[in-house]
Amino acid sequence: MESAIKTIVTTYLGSSRGKENLSGSAFQKLVKKNLSGVMEDTNCSSAVKEMQRGLDENQDGKVSFQEYLTLIGYVANSISQQKCGSNADASQ
Ligand SMILES: [Ca+2]
């Protein structure tokens, strides 16, 4: 689990190149490269842009680390719901 958390942090820092925010294009690349297995539409630029708008709490057009964590939480939540769903199916 520790390595997973470190990966979350280093992935962000690698994409932002040490800056405090990810630009829109850096965010696009990060999502395409890292989340295509757990999210739909990661290859669709307009869908990723839409998602970025949803995450952008301070509306500065960039993705802060906090906003990125919101996305990670959202993805984790959807994975856990899928797992719960499949367990429920197996018990029926
Ligand atoms: Ca922002």
Produce a short descriptive summary.
With 92 residues, the protein is mostly helical. Helices cover 70% and strands 4% of the residues. It has four helices and two strands.
Structure, explained:
The model has no long low-confidence stretch (mean pLDDT 92). A two-stranded antiparallel sheet has the order 1-2. The protein has helices at residues 2-16, 24-34, 45-55, 65-91, and strands at residues 21-22, 63-64. The chain has a single domain (2-91), classed as Recoverin, domain 1 (Orthogonal Bundle). It is mainly alpha-helical. The protein starts with a helix and ends with a helix. It contains four helices and two strands, in the order αβααβα. The longest helix is centred in the last third of the chain and has 27 residues, at 65-91. Calcium ion binds next to β2. One of its GO terms (cellular component) is extracellular space. GO terms for molecular function: calcium ion binding; calcium-dependent protein binding. InterPro entries: EF-hand-dom_pair, EF_Hand_1_Ca_BS, EF_hand_dom.
Shape: globular
CATH overall fold name: Recoverin, domain 1
Give the cofactors and ligands.
calcium ion
* Category from helices, strands and their pairing: mainly alpha
- What's the rounded overall pLDDT mean? 92
Q: What's the β-strand tally?
A: 2
Mind describing the biggest β-sheet?
A: 2 strands, antiparallel
* Head-to-tail CA distance between termini: 31 Å
Tell me the β content: under 5%
Strand order, largest beta sheet: 1-2
The tally of structural domains comes to: 1
Protein name: Protein S100-A13
Keywords: Calcium, Metal-binding
Domain EF-hand: 55-78
GO molecular function, one term: calcium ion binding
